[in-house]
Design a protein that fits this description.
Jelly Rolls, 7-stranded antiparallel sheet, 308 residues, globular, single chain, mainly beta, 5% helix
Amino acid sequence: MSGPVTEQDAAAGAERGLPASPEVELLTAREATVGCLAVRRALPRRARRTVGAWCFADHFGPAAPPASMQVGPHPHFGLHTVTWLVGGEVLHRDSLGSEQLIRPGQLNLMTAGHGVAHAEEQPADGGDVPLHGIQLWVAQPEATRHGPAAFEHHADLPRVDVPGAEVTVLVGEMAGERSPARTDTPLVGAEVALSSGAATVPLHPAYEHAAVVLEGVVTLGGQRVATGVLAYLGEGRDDIVVGADAPARLMLLGGEPFPEPIVMSWNFVARDRREVDRAASDWNAGDQRFGSVDSALARIPAPGPGPG
C-alpha cells in the first residue's frame, strides 16, 4: 500500500509547535483511495508532517471483497516502507526480485535508498478475510538515502506484556525489547493491543510520539480517540496511559524529531523539487535506477513536473 502523497497532504509550511504535556493534539485523517482501497491518511497532515522520521501513515480497512489492494509497479526513493496487517494477506513483489506474502503479525520493510520499485496485491486465494492494516513510510537521513535498496521480512517480532496490554515492537526499541528490523534514525514503531481497562505504556522522553487507532476507541491523556484521527503526543513523556472500554488496538509511532527538511511528492521523499522531477522522469523513461517488477498489474506512471 503506497501513496501517492499529494499537495493536499504535504503542502509546504510551518508545522504547529509542540503541544504542552499532557495535552494531546488530535488531527483528522484525510480520506483517500489507493488502488481499489479506501484509506485514512493520518500522516502527513498540513499541521503535522512528520513524527520523528515517520512521514506517512495510511490506515486501510477492514475492507471485505470486492474492495481489494491492487497497486501496480511504482517507484520510491529516500524512504523505508513499513507494512503491518491486522487482517488479510498482501503479496509484495519488488525490483530486487523479492516476492513475499505478508500476514497479520508479520513485518515487511523495504528500503528504497536511491531507488526501488514494487507492487502490492491481494492474493486471489486469500479467502474472505477482510483486509485491514497500515502502511507507513520512514524518511531516510542524508547518510543513507542515496544508498542501495533492500528488503526484509520478519515473521517473529519481540513482544512486551504490560498490565492490560500487549505491545509488539515493529521497529526500534521499547521496554528493553528491540526489533531486528532496520532503522536509520532513532525511532520506534509498536502495536499496542488492549483489553478493557487502562494500561501504562512506556515512552522514550527524547522522542516525539503519535498514535493511530486501528481498532476500537481509546482514551489517550484523557482524550477519546477513534479511527480516522492522529493523536500527537509531543515530546518529553516517560509514559502514556491508554484506556479502553473494550478490546482495542493502536499503532504507536515515535522518534527523535527529524533534523532535515523534506519534500514529499507522489511516492518520493526528497530534499528539493528537482530531485522529485528527476525521479519522475527516470521512472517514466524506464531508467534502470528503479529496475523492473515481475507483476501482472499495470505499471503506474509518475505525474509530470509540478505538485504531485
